[in-house]
Automatic annotation (TrEMBL):
Signal sequence coordinates: none
Organism: Parnassius apollo (Apollo butterfly)
Pfam families from the UniProt entry: HAD_2
Enzyme Commission number(s) of this protein: 3.1.3.96
Family as reported in the entry's similarity comment: Belongs to the HAD-like hydrolase superfamily. CbbY/CbbZ/Gph/YieH family.
Known catalytic reactions: psi-UMP + H2O = pseudouridine + phosphate
Database matches in InterPro entries: HAD-SF_hydro_IA, HAD_2
UniProt keywords, alphabetically: Hydrolase, Magnesium, Metal-binding
Domain of life: Eukaryota
Protein name: pseudouridine 5'-phosphatase
Protease as UniProt keyword: no
Length: 223
């Protein structure tokens, strides 16, 4: 969801930097790449350790939560995403959401986009779901999300969309195909596991994966 469907990765950067600045530290893009896809407690611990912040995980999360309560409701849909989601829904292709976000943060982020997210019938919130024991790059969240599809698809029949290195590795570990739409600053050689890497979701051609090319139908499921 974050950075792929919504522009919330930019909002996370603002929030994390606001906390880091209090201690004269910088939340770098390299650190951002390291934590993307992790569960809340995991990324908080990583940031605290890397920046040597004098905070507990709970203190860090509490402070950033106050910032995100203002930022997240202003989230925007990324280019090409709404077109694809509505297209797949129209052709009755099962679509799920596998986000490392908590349910509370999810609700903040989608306040202005509820109709679109209602089309994602099968949802998994990694930071709120006790079944998701480990965040990305472990495959847990994708395995749990895929199990919610009524047709119980084989892993190779599931197509994952991701923007993070951790997410790509998680999908690959789950045995799934994965299309990566990364931040333009990312070194793409760091994601050799990606089935396909695109500059934008606007560039995605569904027919390459047996999905309806805006006129055909296929049994593949997506997360």
């Amino acid at each position: 969801m974050d950075g792929l469907i919504l522009n919330t990765e930019d909002l996370y950067t603002i929030g994390f930097q606001k906390v880091a600045s209090r201690f004269g530290k910088e939340f770098t893009f390299a650190l951002k790449c390291k934590i993307m896809g992790q569960k809340s407690e995991e990324f908080a611990a990583s940031i605290i350790e890397d920046l040597d912040l004098p905070l507990t995980v709970e203190e860090f999360l509490t402070e950033t939560r106050l910032v995100f309560q203002e930022l997240f409701p202003e989230s925007k849909i990324m280019p090409g995403v709404e077109k694809l989601i509505r297209h797949l829904h129209q052709h009755k292709v099962p679509i799920g959401l596998a986000t490392s976000s908590s349910k509370v943060n999810y609700d903040l982020k989608v306040q202005k986009h509820t109709q679109l997210f209602d089309l994602l019938e099968y949802k998994t919130w990694g930071s709120s779901d006790p079944l998701v024991k480990r965040g990305k790059p472990y495959p847990d969240i994708f395995q749990i999300a895929a199990a919610k599809f009524p047709d119980n698809p084989a892993p190779e029949k599931v197509l994952v969309f991701e923007d993070s290195i951790n997410g790509v590795r998680a999908a690959h570990s789950a045995g799934m195909q994965v299309v990566m739409v990364p931040d333009p600053r990312l070194d793409r050689t760091l994601a050799p596991e990606a089935t396909l890497i695109l500059n934008s979701m606007e560039d995605f051609q569904p027919e390459l994966f047996g999905l309806p090319s805006f006129s055909n139908v296929s049994p593949i499921s997506t997360i």
